[in-house]
From TrEMBL:
This is Gfo/Idh/MocA-like oxidoreductase N-terminal domain-containing protein. It comes from Phycisphaera mikurensis (strain NBRC 102666 / KCTC 22515 / FYK2301M01). InterPro entries: Gfo/Idh/MocA-like_OxRdtase_N (IPR000683), Gfo/Idh/MocA_oxidrdct_glycsds (IPR050463), NAD(P)-bd_dom_sf (IPR036291). Residues 59-135 form the Gfo/Idh/MocA-like oxidoreductase N-terminal domain. One of its GO terms (molecular function) is oxidoreductase activity. Coiled coil: none annotated. It holds the Pfam family GFO_IDH_MocA. Keywords: Oxidoreductase.
Amino acid sequence: MPEAAGPEGAPLGLCFAGLHGFARDVTDLALAEPRVRVVSAGDPAADDPAGAGRIELLRAAGVDVHACFKAALAVPGVEAAWLPVPISLHRPFGEAALAAGKALLCEKPLAGCVEDAAALVHAAAASGLPAAVGFHDLFDPAVLGFKREAHGPGGIGELESVTVLASWPRDDAYFGRNGWAGRLRHADAWVRDSPANNALAHYLMLGLFFAGDDDLVAATPVAAAGRLLRAAAIESFDTVSARFALGPGCVRPGVRLDLHLTHAAEETLQPQVLLRGRRGRRLWKLEPGDPDFAPADRVAVSCGGAAVRARVLPRFVDLCRGVPRPDAPYATLGAGLAHAHAIEALHAAAEVEDLPAGCVVDRPTAGGVQRVVPGLLQALRKAAAAGRLLDPETLGQAG
């Protein structure tokens, strides 16, 4: 029997990789979850005096803190591992956890390349252990309900296309926050950091998931075309306008997914995902107050980021305990692999290019400077609504 299969009513013994940043936030979530016991944590920073206060707090809560993740995995009582760590560590830490007999909750994205994502899928299947990816919207029952309604009787009919649109402005402090932000490779591994593979990856995943042919399936892209653009002084891209042809796992052949994401606009537009079918349209939105970028017959609004994130750990506990939840989805490693195929297809289809210099301006922010393109969001909205891709050469003419 896999080590993670403990008694249904017992708290799940959890090990964390990481102590600070996002790891701090999710560890605090776990400490507050009655169905979980945080047994251990592993981070090289455990020996750093600057983090002594945090480590003291964790140890006071009964957490065994180590400077080595494998040592933390070996603490008695650990049944599962959560990996809120840099993308370059997802494969080695995930494989280590599974090899040690622990269930796995890997933060999104699953990995920085298809090879690493596929290796984790294989390792999880070989282990027989529960495994999931932290694409938190896929843990929301309302998201599964939206998908079922759209493809069910009285829904949109045969799906023709999916469009994802979002703008989250980010400044140079964001890209300078660690050693891998805005990078294609880090620590001898692919990370391919970008809006599509990090901050806004959740919504590309939603688009793939809504096109999937079963409750837990995300469609896998087989080809892509478009533009990978940057305003910021980074190696990767901060803006993408691209089209995917969807293949395995899609509800029908011939469906396309259009993706329009940016960190370089002046304005914020919370994510929206539009499904166009032969009989109708459905729109999913993160924020109810934002105007719809295109008309739809029905609109669904997320219950909010914090509320959705709070569903991840209880659902993962159910998964580890073998509790059936047919109406409560989660993000499988197979879905994470579909997302990795999307990212790899983007980079195979286009080189990263600078946005036209004449349309990029510096704007001061509270944390530093953001390199923005006035009119970029309006241009992306128009492209998304019209079912076409952005032509960056026209941006100098935008408002």
